[in-house]
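Q: Here's a chain of 339 amino acids. Please give me its 3D structure as tokens.
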Amino acid sequence: MPRKYAGMWTAIVTPFSQAGGIDEEALRRMVKRQIAGGVSGIVPVGTTGESPTTTTEEDARIFEIVVEETRKAFEKNNGSSIGEQTVADGARGQPPKKVLVMAGAGSNSTHEATEYIKNAKKAGADCCLIVSPYYNKPTQKGLRLHYLALAKLGLPIIVYNIKGRTGVNIETDTLMEIARHPMIVGVKEASGDMGQIKEVLRRREELEKDMSFGGSVAGGGLQNGAKEFTVLSGDDGLTLEVMRNGGDGVVSVAGNLIPRELSEMVKMASTADFEGAAKVNEKFARLFKDIFVETNPIPVKYIASRMGLCGPAFRLPMCEPEEKTKAYLEETMKFYELI
């Protein structure tokens, strides 16, 4: 059986109105499109959602909207999510799954992250994504203390390791230590280091085996029942390679544009249909590269706006792409028939 937090998650962009506020109507439309595309989950208020520029109150409202839309979709269909995912699950005789919500709630201040997690929990998020503290570059001891303090709040945590943005790498020893806590349930690996990711996957097997037999939990106590620790790619271009090596899925930027296609690719890989998954991966390899031609989320949000999914508004210091980038992305959109 897949791990609970496995699958294709979209790190959704935050649509802003021309007046500068959150475009709630566009956000609801985008969430519905993701659900219809068969995604496993949605990640609001991540870096792709311009989280550095949104207020605590806005974050809480975004969490509420995304949770509300996923619940409505589930309840509308007699306890079933809409979209291809539900049909496929039903055909296999499995109960249909609710699209999960992983709230972006990280900060380089443990105190601030505490407040974000409380808001996510109040909104009804299923779990939260906690990036390693950025800029202040804590030691490995500081990272352990940060995550274990946040784990006490009772909302499952997906650790987010992205040393290119934070300036600090969560070493595998540190990750495996904090993963013994029952509320630390996975990692989004965006280190870009396949050697490290493979090491995480290898040691994850040892961790789950040990914890399933009542191993000790960080901070004291025992883990009841089997321990699951999900490993998600944080890079669309590495998803297939990560899954070939035992990974569980992806937190995707490209999913904003092609949720159905990437959901299918991840499903194929999760059932060891790597030949089929490789075809999808190869088809969209150019898109995976092109949406990072400027800083994320500038390219993906520009394309989304051209597709009519949201408006073109950004919040400074994020801004519209350079004119030459726009021209380049226009060619990308034509190549993939996105517009």
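Q: Can you summarize the key feature?
A: Residues 81-93, 214-224 have pLDDT under 50 and may be disordered.
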